[in-house]
Design goal:
mainly alpha; Arc Repressor Mutant, subunit A; Tetracycline Repressor, domain 2; 2 domains
Amino acid sequence: MSPRPYRMEKRRAAASDTRTRILEATRQLLAEQVAPDLSMDAIARRADVARLTIYYQFKSRRGLLEALYDHLAMRGNMQRMAEVFHAPDPSQSVERLVRTFVEFWSSDPLVMRRLRAMAALDPEVEKGIRARDARRQHASREILRRMSAPGKSAQALPDATPAAADVLSTLTSFETYDALAMAGHSGDEIIAMITTLAKFALTAMPASARSLPVKTERRRSRPRKS
């Protein structure tokens, strides 16, 4: 190997290490501070890098937050979502979806809680949180769509309507997990409870509640000419 490719490889490795150190510094600030300071200066001090290094790595604060969400997802094994869509039957799809999200939320609950609290005051944080929540709802709808596809067994769950997807998305949300965790339930207990609730809710929903009413605007009738 010539010296030049070797030096380039070393630079890439160093940049990757720096990037990880910055992300971990951001996560630690969220975990340790009641009112986290996620300014570039505070993160630079914690990561022991120059402020410009953060901009070089992430371009902007928004870019840093986007990378942080991905970093948390990797730490929480969200890559296992692929297993949800390859489950052999609808019942297992729901179980895997619940387990994937409960394990993700439980991987760093304090950080998740503080990020969501910050979203109420910080538009950049709110935008990222909303985007991730939308992905969960999309996944819920896709799972329900596959469950109701022609050829599925009698165990198939209701059609992939907005209301049913909303129910499944709500049950697998951080807020649901956090309420049960704060009540003293273990991860396994939470998985069992949410799975039971999800299956019951989806199969027990009356047909009238499975879809959202479509509002149609009534046309005003024109007065007849005399």
